[in-house]
Amino acid sequence: MAGGFVSQTPGVRNYNYKLTPKVFVTCFIGAFGGLIFGYDLGISGGVTQMEPFLEEFFPDVHRKMKSAHQNEYCRFDSQLLTLFTSSLYLAALVSSLFASTITRVFGRKWSMFLGGFTFFIGSAFNGFAQNIAMLLIGRILLGFGVGFANQSVPVYLSEMAPPNLRGAFNNGFQVAIIFGIVVATIINYFTAQLKGNIGWRISLGLACVPAMMIMIGALILPDTPNSLIERGFTDKAKQMLQSIRGTNEVDEEFQDLIDASEESKQVKHPWKNILLPRYRPQLIITCFIPFFQQLTGINVITFYAPVLFQTLGFGSKASLLSAMVTGIIELLCTFVSVFTVDRFGRRVLFLQGGIQMLISQIAIGVMIGVKFGTVGTGDIGKTDANLIVALICIYVAGFAWSWGTLGWLVASEIAPLEIRSAAQATNVAVNMFFTFLVAQLFLTMLCHMKFGLFFFFAVFVFIMTIFIYLMLPETKNVPIEEMNRVWKAHWFWGRFIPDEAVGVSAAEMQQKSV
Ligand code: BGC
């Protein structure tokens, strides 16, 4: 089994480049792609708490919310209200599948541009919405934007970054997501205090700002060397590689990119090929990572923190404030991953974060269970409510440096060029599907499963932690076009990788790694 746990795979070259200002600036701008996703994640929960918004579009929910003696667990249960939040993710799922072709054929930056553009139009529909139809059309356009950006940005960052710093650079995407969430919650905090409809209109309309940032960013960004070679611009690709690596000594990496591209040319249909046995490890991991990421239950906090805090008896203002605090903690803790992921590796963070989330979730479930029981009525004292907020912060911190950042990093770095776009699209599509499901079902689940909901997610966190331990090899410092060697050396996945893909047999690789 040793092959599964090696951190330094035998035969893998390490180019050891220095960090250049060009690659830093490029990845910094590229990471803006996470802002639209984050802004939306953060804005919806708060807006669906604003009374003028509910009165205007969801009068039934508004009435229910105001009624006294309501079962706390069921206060906000409305399928239509959750559809407002979750419709975006279905649209993102569909668009990520188209985005994969655009990313491959026209380059990563045009997918990013399209993402910003559709998000921009969506923000106008939402900010000026007069009826529920405008609201939903706007959400769908925003969703298209998110699908394009999430499909292209992580791949862009992973290809641009030097291999020894790929984790840190790719994490820029998650930093941008969380930054978007925090800014959105701060905006909600202020707009919620405005009278009439202007508050929610500002919140939804301001989505145009991150959209413009991505559009402008995408126009000035260069494309990745991998994508330039893939599209036949070999000379330009070499110059680009030399300029982002800050040296002319890039022959080895360049040759790897050329080889990867040659191999990828044999593949005419990435979608059909990803189903071949030799890509089984990548396919399974790119399906399970986003599935598990969503089953951590994080979006219960992201979307519904304000709702959850109100359920715990906080006032509307205190709820938004608490949501802001959890967002800021998540942002700070994401940097833990930025600074450690290339040193300690992906596996350590996944395993540590998983255990932390598991313990805090069980504790939250127990506390809410004791206070509200199964009937869902009762009063929670200030100290207990603060303790629950603290536990939520511990949970969010664990997520931030494990599944939050790595969910996007791992899927974008494990697939060979010929299926990379399709693999990333699969990652986004699965992620969006389960984001949709959690968003759509959470309030109903809370209403029926009550505090048991936290145990439900804890069981999944337990399973996913075991899964990582057994099935995910370490990928830190491995050049992206040499990833096949990592799979070949793994105790289980090795059997799927043909010898010619790495030039050695699985037995030899595993022997070397013991
Ligand atoms: C996840 C989102 C989540 C966000 C913030 C991202 O990595 O994909 O679903 O809302 O992190 O926690």
Structure description:
This is Major facilitator superfamily (MFS) profile domain-containing protein. The protein starts with 20 loop residues before the first helix and ends with a helix. α8 crosses α19 (382-413). The model is unreliable at 1-7 (pLDDT under 50). With 514 residues, it is mostly helical. Helix content is 75%, strand content 0%. The chain has a single domain, classed as Growth Hormone, Chain: A, CATH 1.20.1250. Residues 41, 174, 177-178, 181, 293, 298-299, 302, 330, 404, 407, 431, 435 line the site of beta-D-glucopyranose.
Number of helices: 23
3D shape? globular
Which structural category do the helix and sheet elements fall into?
Answer: mainly alpha
Mean pLDDT: 86
Overall domain count: 1
Query: Approximately what portion of the residues adopt beta-strand conformation?
Result: under 5%
Biggest sheet, open or closed, and with what strands and sense? none
- Portion in helices: over 70%
Q: Which spans have pLDDT < 50 for at least 5 consecutive residues?
A: 1-7
Order of helices and strands: HHHHHHHHHHHHHHHHHHHHHHH
Total number of beta strands: 0
Main features:
transmembrane helix, Growth Hormone, Chain: A, globular, binds beta-D-glucopyranose, Sugar/inositol_transpt, 75% helix, transmembrane, MFS_dom, 514 residues, mainly alpha, 23 helices
SSE topology:
Blueprint: H1 21-31, H2 33-47, H3 51-57, H4 59-66, H5 79-106, H6 108-127, H7 132-160, H8 166-191, H9 198-205, H10 208-220, H11 225-230, H12 234-245, H13 251-265, H14 270-273, H15 280-295, H16 298-311, H17 316-340, H18 346-372, H19 382-413, H20 417-449, H21 452-471, H22 483-488, H23 506-513
Helix pairs in contact: 1-7, 1-8, 2-7, 2-8, 2-16, 3-4, 5-6, 5-7, 5-20, 6-7, 6-9, 6-10, 7-8, 7-19, 7-20, 8-9, 8-17, 8-19, 15-19, 15-20, 16-17, 17-19, 18-19, 18-21, 19-20
